Fold:
Amino acid sequence: MDISRYRVPAGETVDLSTWDPHDNGGLDRDDAEDETKALNKELESLQELLHAEGRHKVLVVIQATDTGGKDGTIRHVFDGVNPSGVTVAPFKKPTPEELAHDYLWRVHQHTPGSGELTIFNRSHYEDVLVVRVHELVPGERWSRRYEHIRNFEQLLVDEGTTIVKLFLHISKDEQRERLQDRIDRPDKNWKFSFGDLAEREHWADYQEAFRVMLEETSTDDAPWYVIPADRKWFRNRVISEIIVSTLRSLDMAYPDPEEGVPGTVVP
Ligand code: AMP
Ligand code: MG
Structure:
């Protein structure tokens, strides 16, 4: 699978209407699910290698519209991966203490250390998404944040972090179905709040905020991928491929054993 077709080229204008959320890449669902499982096995070993080598830091940022599938992605793509090597950092509404600081303050402390893989479930990008749509700070403040974010991510990259950013792209119809499902199924009611319907009314504003985010912050070193996410199986397939090929490209190796270890017999 050629993942480069899902990467947003740095410095180019973005038109979200040219990215089809319903795309299935021409794949067969059963085949794709088998391939995702195989990639998941490979991810397990690559993650162990990442941990053993202890050299690279890997940050996966996930953003999406409500119901876009962030939690499902994390569950499926990282299924079975050693939980002690992978950390999920969720970013909710900021606390008063967080709000009393700059918006990157709460984010920086959750970035991965050497040998770690961290997944941001929402991120500093909320500060140019929900904050922009609802003008939680004036335009003159949020508009400067794209540059801060590019610089912040460049700092992380320069200091040895590999960054992959995933935008889960669903259609407005798909969102209706997923919200309706949360209402109709008692076991899913906990996921629904009337606030989600209020947010849905801002669909167009969010799409514009996502568009500008992609345009302003996809860089060669910290690229965004637009993931067609209406079909969950295809979403999982594409994301697995992106994560695995990113880890493969790190060219990792197990550290050399201490001198004299090979051949030593335990008494
Ligand atoms: P959930 O992911 O469904 O638990 O919801 C988390 C909520 O926190 C979402 O409504 C986000 O928009 C909100 N949120 C996350 N980060 C921020 C932020 N920096 N400012 C305002 N709201 C935020
Ligand atoms: Mg929610």
